[in-house]
Amino acid sequence: MKRDPRQLVRLLAFARPYRALFVVGLLATLVSSGLNLVFPALFGRLIDASFLRVGSSDTSQLDRTVLLLLGIFALSAVFGAAQSYLLSRVGAGVVADLRRAVFSHLLTLSPRFFGEHKTGDLTSRLTSDVGTVQTVTSTALAQLAAQTVSLVGAVVLLISTSARLSLLTLAVIPLVIGTAVVVGRQIRRVSREVQDAVAGANASAEEAISGVRVVQSFTAEGVEQARYGEGVLASFRAALRRAQWQALMTGVMSFLTFGALAVVLWYGGRQVMAGTLTPGNLVTFLFYALQVGATVAGLTGIFNQFQEALGASGRIFELLDERSDLPQPAQPSPLVRADGRVTFSGVTFAYEGAGEPGARERGAVLRDVTLDVPAGQVVALVGPSGSGKTTLVNLIPRFWDVTAGTLRVDGRDVREYALSDLRAQVGLVPQETLLFSGTVRENILYGRPGARPEEVEAAARAANAHEFIMGFAQGYDTVVGERGVKLSGGQRQRVAIARAVLKDPRILILDEATSALDNESESLVQAALERLMQGRTTFVIAHRLSTIRGADRIVVIDAGRVVEDGPHAALIAQGGLYRDLYELQFRAQQEGQAELSVP
After folding, report:
1. Which one of 220, 243, 387, 417 is separated from 261 by 20 to 30 angstroms, measured CA to CA?
2. How far does Cα 315 stand from its chain's mean position?
3. Average pLDDT over every residue of 48-69
4. Which of 49-53, 313-317, 343-347, 506-510 has the highest mean pLDDT?
């Protein structure tokens, strides 16, 4: 990925709400750095006061110097603690805001985006990548200013202490900077490899954990362990390469730093012996030389932090720059309470290349579908598996946009409405019910978060759920577990229906809502669904044709086209695909009953 320096500016924009804290923390850092420039000179005075007055009983200068040193150390500690807390507060706030911004933006993206990206990779960007940029938005900037002050001040004081020794010390700096730049490039490259490898391993783990029942039912634990192990091994190898480069930098820096100090001690010792430099001045010079070395090393470390953060922020801003393929209208049409009329006019849809010229000819899932469904009508969608039934109803809440043709709700193209307004009018009860890992009450309230307790209970009663809910020790406060694992399939489905009842949508989509249930659960769920359908425009997808005979209208879809349309009796009399499907299923049911009756 190409690193754009402008990413740093975008990153720092998240620190704007905390600029007052940041400025105070920066000032505390500068004061602490300035105080640190004072104590080497006082150490030198302390040495001279001790060694140059051997045999003297006057210790007043020594006492004053020690007291002054203790005072400076105390002030430096206070300002250091203040800057540490304030800048940590800034960093934590920026990370929290950035995570919220990324997560909120992710929720605005279309299903197409999530179909192209692994969940583990997205969660890795939310966690590890955002954490990587924390130091830049907090301590790194302040440390950059502090290290700059320390470097300039120490160099000036070095030269004023001994110009000759300064030349020896400063000659090492270009070598240190050159090493940091060359080796730092390799560290940045490998750091990105580590981030990508960790994200890949997280994605594998996410898939295996979310589908753990399938994994265990196929005894594929070894396969998933191997897949995750490969990802971990890749991240380990990348981390090892990074450690090797970091070790190389540490070794070279250590040699250059201590080698330079050895040369300074050798040359400075000769000057002390010659009487051109006092022991105290030599000690002062050594402290300033150490400060210069530490500052240069610190600056190279900060440089590497900035580069590493740019790599991580690039992955973050990739998400923030991602735009939904479901554009919102600049001036949306109002949709407070829809009547519920749904009209498909020549609708064609293809998952790949939707909206591009020629998509109609590239294996479209739906082809030239035209349907006019009046408000309040119950329409059953029937057809072979893969014929496009679910795709058709997913166009209504704009999970996808049509490739060609138009889809209207209440006479207006759905693209003229704000997505939130349109989806507020649509309720969905899918075959695979997803409950969140909270309580039963919280899952029902998902339909309308501000609902009163009595409204939640009324919705549960309408969904035939109140009785089994009250059978739990905690009632509505029972925790359902991740994805509702603590409930049976029928219980989960009835909670989902209660959620839809509470939402009170004008358009209802039932996508094989009873297909995975036993007969007892199906009858309870079917009764709840019939109450839910009253007075709403309803699209029912059901593989059990016996459950849809009461629909106002049955639409038969085959290979993405509407091939039959009418009530049950008329379609049976017509003798087309619907009758074939119905008779095939009826025969299968009779054979199954006959097998059960064999003694």
Report:
1. 243
2. 11
3. 66
4. 343-347
List Cβ<8 Å contacts ≥24 apart for 274-282.
277/162, 278/44, 278/48, 278/52, 279/47, 279/48, 279/51, 279/52, 280/43, 280/44, 280/45, 280/46, 280/47, 280/48, 280/49, 280/51, 280/52, 281/44, 281/48, 281/161, 281/162, 282/44
Taking a C-beta distance cutoff of 8 angstroms, is the pair 565, 555 a contact?
Answer: yes
Residues 486 and 480: beta-carbon distance below 8 Å: yes
Q: Which of 439, 473, 471 is nearest to 456 (CA)?
A: 439
User: Are 6-320 and 333-425+506-599 the same fold in CATH?
Assistant: no
Per-residue confidence (pLDDT) for residue 357, from 0 to 100: 46
Residue 424 C-alpha from the chain's centroid = 25
Q: What is the pLDDT of residue 542?
A: 77
Instruction: Quote the CA–CA distance of 543 and 385 in Å, as a whole number.
Output: 9
Instruction: Give the Cα separation of 596 and 95 in Å (integer).
Output: 62
User: Considering only the top CATH level, what class is 429-504?
Assistant: alpha beta
Q: Where are the domains of the chain?
A: 6-320, 333-425+506-599, 429-504
Torsion sign (Cα): 426, 427, 433, 439: positive
pLDDT-derived band at 126 (thresholds 50, 70, 90) equals confident
Fold entry, domain 6-320: ABC transporter transmembrane region fold (1.20.1560)
> Which class would CATH give 333-425+506-599?
alpha beta
CB distance 311 to 125 below 8 Å:
no
What is the reported pLDDT for 594? 42
Single-letter amino acid, residue 164: R
Q: How far apart are CA 121 and CA 319, in angstroms?
A: 11
Neighbour count for residue 97 (Cβ, 10 Å)? 17
Average pLDDT, the chain: 79
Q: What pairing do the DSSP bridges indicate for beta strands 507-511 and 537-541?
A: parallel
Confidence of residue 414 (pLDDT cuts 50, 70, 90): very high
Query: Is the distance from CB of 154 to CB of 37 less than 8 angstroms?
Result: yes
Q: Which residue, 39, 38, 40, is CA-closest to 286?
A: 40
Distance CA 207, CA 330 (A): 38
**Higher confidence at residue 220 or residue 397?**
397
